[in-house]
Design goal:
about 25% strand; 12 strands; alpha/beta; Spore Coat Polysaccharide Biosynthesis Protein SpsA, Chain A; about 250 residues; two-stranded antiparallel sheet; 2 domains; single chain
Amino acid sequence: MPQPPISGVIIAFNEQARIVRAVESLRPWCAEVLVLDSHSSDRTRELAESAGARVLLQEFLGHQAQKNRAIELARHDWILSLDADEELVGDPANLLAALDFNRETLVYRIPRRNWYLGGWVDATGWKRDSSVRLFNRTKARFGGSTVHDRAGGAGCEERVLPAQILHWPYRDLSHHLQKIDAYTSALAAELDGRGVRFSALKLTLDPPWKFLKEYLLLGGWRLGWRGLVLSVMSAIYVFLKYAKLWERQRVGR
C-alpha cells in the first residue's frame, strides 16, 4: 500500500522560544504539523505559523485531554506527537522504512535524550527515557497520570523507531522547582482522588531511596555536580508528592 500521510501534533502555551524548533523538526516527517495553542499571550501562534504549522486555538483541557483533542483535529489518522520543548532528529527515510502501515495496532516508541543544566544527561533514570509517539489514532489515545501521559490502546504492540527526541525540559533550577511544585500538587490530588492513603513509611523511605538509586545505582555521580543536583531534585519530587498527600488528608485544603 502507498505510505499514508502522517500528522505531526504539538500542544503549546507561551512557547515562543522553542516552538519553531519543534515545528521544523516535524516537517520532514509529516504531511502536516498541527499546533494546538492554549491562547498564548506571546508570539507562539505567529511563530508556529511562520514555521509552516497549522495553528488552532483551544482552552486548556488538561494534559491528556488537550493532546487527544489535537489528535482529533489532525487531518490524518497516523499521528506523530511532540512536545513544544522537544526536537525530533534522525533520518526520515530510515524512520519511514521502519513503519508498518498495514498494522494499525502497532505503536512506535522513540528514545529521548534530556538536557539539564548545560549538558546532556546520559546517566540516572533519564538515560532510559523513551515514550510512544507515533501511532494510529483509530487504535491509540493518550492516557496515564495527571502529569505523565502515555499513548496506547487495547491490543497495541510496541516497536522502537530509529530516531531520537531531544528534550529541553527546564530553563534553570527555578523553572525545575516550579514544575516540581505544580506536578506534585497535581499528583497528590490524583492519588487522593483514587483513594490512596498517606503512608509515613513511603514519605520517610522513598525519597532517600530515590536519591541513592539515581545517584549511585544509575550513575548520577558520573555527571558531576549536575548529577548530584538532578538526583536531589528527584528525591524532592518524591518527598513533596507524599507530603502533599499527607497535607490533603491530614490538614485539609
